[in-house]
Amino acid sequence: MNIAYNIKLGWDILKYNLRIVFGNKFVYFLIAAVAFFLMVIGIILFSNASIADNDIYATLIFPGILIIFYPVIFNIQNDKDARMLEIIFGVPNYRYKVYLVRFIISLILLFGILLLMSWFTVFAVLRIPVLQMVYELMYPLLFLACLSFLFATLVRNASGAAVIMIIIGLVFWILSEPLQYSKWNIFLNPFDVPSDISHSVWRNILYQNRLMLIIGSVVSLLWAMVNLQRREKFV
């Protein structure tokens, strides 16, 4: 009886979280991501320029940002708008059972869509290592997702957090060119191997970059969870 009740409760929580992830304006972000991807693929198909794996990586990262942006930024705001915040905060260890689960659902969704886009790229444009491509893309996207979630808990307003992340994203994007082969570039392209750097040095730069992104992601996510303990600020 107890097990059946827990299963039903878990299923109800999962269904609610899925509605939050897929609800409201997410479909517009998804459509924009797919439209951008198809537009770039169309340009590639009708151009005479040679295409390599590093070009596909750069093409896929922007749709990935669009896909993860809404469910992470508006994670808490949607509960507040639906007047469900107090109910969710009443669940024991809610920050792990609800928001962390929802965050993981968003990442799984992102991973799946990137897989589909990569497979379509193989079919339409260029044979690429699909799993490696998506794996490498998840590093910067996970960092941006965790950072977005952190600012959503700090600002406590989805629109304000969205503006902050857009500004931060633009700064990172502008710095990505002068820091093209630096370990400090969060958009470091692992498939764009520089010709004037030895393979071992490049692997070390890439390793340090990925390690910093993972550490930054973990710190941001844990900080966000601590902020969610102060529930009176959100209600």
Structural features:
globular, 235 residues, 9 helices, mainly alpha
Structure class: mainly alpha
Averaged pLDDT:
81
Shape field: globular
E-strand count: 0
Rg over C-alpha atoms, rounded to the nearest angstrom: 19 Å
Oligomer: single chain
| Low-pLDDT segments, ≥5 res | none
Question: Main beta sheet, described?
Answer: none
The SSE string, one letter per element, is HHHHHHHHH
Amount of beta strand: under 5%
In percent, how helical is the residue content?
over 70%
What is the overall number of helices?
9
Euclidean distance between termini CA atoms? 34 Å
Describe this entry's structure for a reader:
76% of the residues lie in helices and 0% in strands. The longest helix has 31 residues, at 94-124. It is globular, with a radius of gyration of 19 Å. Helix 2 (26-45) runs antiparallel to helix 3 (53-73), helix 3 runs antiparallel to helix 6 (94-124) and helix 3 (53-73) runs parallel beside helix 7 (130-155). The mean pLDDT is 81. The chain has helices at 2-22, 26-45, 53-73, 75-81, 85-89, 94-124, 130-155, 158-175, 199-228. The chain has 235 residues and is mainly α.
Summarize the structure.
The chain has 235 residues and is mostly helical.
Topology:
Elements: H1 2-22, H2 26-45, H3 53-73, H4 75-81, H5 85-89, H6 94-124, H7 130-155, H8 158-175, H9 199-228
Helix pairs in contact: 1-6, 2-3, 3-6, 3-7, 6-7, 7-8, 7-9
